[in-house]
Amino acid sequence: MTAPRTPRIPYGGDYNPEQWPQQVWDDDHRLFTQARIDTLTVGVFTWSLTQPAPDTYDFTHLDRILDRAAAENRRVCLATGTAALPPWLAKQYPEVNRTDFEGRRHRYGRRHSFCPSSPAYREHATAIAARLAERYADHPALLAWHINNEYGGACYCDLCAAAFRERLRATYGTLDALNDAWWTTFWSHRYTDWDQIEPPNALTEHWRGPDHTAFQGITLDYFRFTTDALLGCFLAEKEVIRAQDPDTPVTTNFMGMFRPLDYHRWAPHLDFASWDSYPPLDAPPTWPALAHDLMRGLKDGAPFWLMEQTPSTTACRDVNPLRRPGELRLATFQAIAHGADAALYFQMRASRGACEKYHGAVIGHAGRDDTRVFREVAELGRELEALGDATLGARTPARTALLFDWDSWWALEISDGPSRLVKYQEVVHAYYRAAREAGADVDVVPVTADLTTYDVVLAPVLHMVKGDLAGRLEAVAARGGTVLTTFLSGRVDEHDRAFLTDVPGPFGPLMGVRVDEWDSRPTDVVRPVRLGELTCEARLVFEIVLPRGAEAVGTYGADFYAGTPAVTRHACGQGEGWYVATALDQPGVHWVVRRILARHDLLGPYADHPELETATRVSPDGTSLLFLLNHTPEPAHLTAHTTATDLLTGKRVEEGEPLTLDPLGTAILRTR
C-alpha cells in the first residue's frame, strides 16, 4: 500500500477544534477555504476526550469534526491520539508511566510518557484505535490513519527489563553467545543467568549520561530494543485498524535525523513515510534537504509526506526565530523538490494555553486573515492548487547514494575513543552538502540497500560494518563506480567489537590503505592538508595512513605525520576507492567530492552556483522536473541549460537564454 491518492498536493495541517467553541470552527473553515486548505490532521491529542473514563467512550467531538470537514470538502488524516495518556489511565495503572534513565518512576504528566512494554498501555491504546477504526473507516473525510505522534523516549522499568531479556534470548539463543558478543570477560561481567542482565542506565553501566557506557554492546542492544518496543506499539495499533479498515493508508510522523530510533527498522511497516521538519537554528539549507532525502529513502525512493512544519516560528527552543518573508514558500518547495507529496503545518490555529501557545500557526489568536503569515500561506495554497498533480508520485533519478546507518551513529557516539567530539550527523552532512551543492541528486539509503544502480557511494564515518556490505561496496568499484569512506570507518562489527585486523577493517582491500595510529585533538587544534592547489584545514582525528596500493591525493602539512597521506585514491577493478583520514573542513570535502562526481559526469549544470539548490524528480509518465531553489536574498542570474517551461509561472525559456530567480525564489522546470 502507498500514500493516499489525491488530485493535488494535500495542503493544511494539525487542527485541534476540540479546544474551541463552534463559532471559532466557522471562522476556521472560512479561512481554510480562503487559503486553499484541503487536508486536516485531527485527533492527535484527544484520548482523554474520546475516552474520559475506563469504560466510557464519547466520539461526539470527533463526529462533528469529521462531519464538518466532509461538508467543507476537506479530507482528514485521523490520529489515534495515543501519544498522550489520559490522566485516569496513569492513575489506575501506574506501571504505564515510564521509569527514566536515573531509575525514577514518573507520575502523570506531559506527553510521550508511556512505557512501551506496559500491557495496560497496549491494551487501552489498541482498544481506542480499534473503536476509532470501527467508527470512521468508511467516513467520507478519511484520507489516512496517523498512529500516535512523534514516537520517542526510552523506559528502564522492570517490565522493560523483562522484555529486554526476552529479546536477548531470541537474538542470541545462549548466554555464551551473548557473553561473547558483549565481551563480558572484561571487568568480570560474564553472565550465568538471564535474570542477571539489567537495562544499561545511570544505575548500571553508564556514567555522565546515556553516551558514556562501560559496555557498548549492551547499550547498543538496548537502543535496538527501544526501537523495536515502540515499533511494537505502532504495529499493535495498525493491526486493529487493519481489521476494520483494510484499505486506508497508515503512517506515523517521524522526526528526520532522530537519533533514538532506527527508522530503517520501521520503514517496511509504514504504508508511506511522513515526518515533521523543524531544522536547527541557523542550519544551512542542505540540513533539512538531507533529512528529506533520508525520509524518501525509507520507502525505496517513494514520495513522503511533510506532516509538519511551522508557518512562522517554533516554541520548543530557548530562542525561536521567525521565518522571514519568502522562507516558508522556499522551504515548502524544497520539501516537494526532495520528494514530498504533501505540505502540512503545525498548527492551523494557535492554542490559547499551555506550552505551544506561542508556536507558529496559520491562524493566530486574533483569528485574522490580514497577517503576513496568513497571506503567505494563502498565496502558497493558490500556487499548489494551480500546480495540481504535476509532481505527485514523481521519483528522484539519483546516481549518487549516501549510506546512513543508525547502528554506526550509535556506536560512534557511545565509544570512548578516539574522539567524542566527532558527531555522526555533522560528518555525514558535510559530504551530503558537498554532493548537493555540486548539483548531484542524492539518495540517502540504509546499508542494506541495493547499490547496483549507483555510480557513486558515499559512506562517511561508517563505523560499524555488518553483513556483506564490504563485498557489495567492492562490487560497486569493480564495475567502475567510486566508493568513498572516511576516518573512523570499518572499525567494529555488529556487536561493537573491534575487527582483529588492520584499520579500516573490511574496507581495507577496497581502500588500499592501512591505518596504524590515530591522533585525536581538541577542536582548536588544526592541521593543514594539501589537496592539489588547495590548502584546507583538518580537525578532531588525524589517522596515520600507510598506502597498500593506494596513491596519496592529499597530505598532512604539520606534526610528525607531515607529508603522509590524508586523502587517498585506490584503483579497484574498473573503479576507485577514496579514503579520507581526517575531518576536513567544508572546502576540503567539496574538493574531494567534486572530483569524484566529475569522474562520473555527475556535476550539475549549475554547480558553479553553490547557493542555488537543484533537485530532479521524474513523474510516472516520464516527465522530468528540475527544481531550482535560490537560498540567497539576492537574485540568481543563470543561463538556461536546456529548453524548459516553468510550471509555477508558465513561462518558457530556451537553452542558452538568461534565467533569473528572485531572492528566495523557486522554479520548477519541465524539460520534457
Automatic annotation (TrEMBL):
The cross-references to Pfam families, in alphabetical order and at most eight, read: Glyco_hydro_42 (PF02449), Glyco_hydro_42C (PF08533), Glyco_hydro_42M (PF08532)
Q: Which residues form the active site?
A: 150, 308
Query: Which residues belong to any copy of the Beta-galactosidase trimerisation domain?
Result: 398-602
Q: Does the keyword Zinc apply?
A: yes
Q: What EC number(s) is this enzyme filed under? A: 3.2.1.23
Which residues bind substrate per the record?
Answer: 111, 149
| GO biological process terms on file | galactose metabolic process
| CDD domains (UniProt xref) | A4_beta-galactosidase_middle_domain (cd03143)
Q: Which InterPro entries match?
A: Beta_galactosidase_C, Beta_galactosidase_Trimer, Class_I_gatase-like, GH, Glyco_hydro_42, Glyco_hydro_42_N, Glyco_hydro_b
Q: Name one GO molecular function term.
A: beta-galactosidase activity
GO cellular component terms, A-Z: beta-galactosidase complex
Q: Does the keyword Glycoprotein apply?
A: no
**Catalysed reactions listed for this entry:** Hydrolysis of terminal non-reducing beta-D-galactose residues in beta-D-galactosides
What protein family does this chain belong to?
Belongs to the glycosyl hydrolase 42 family.
Instruction: Specify the protein name.
Output: Beta-galactosidase
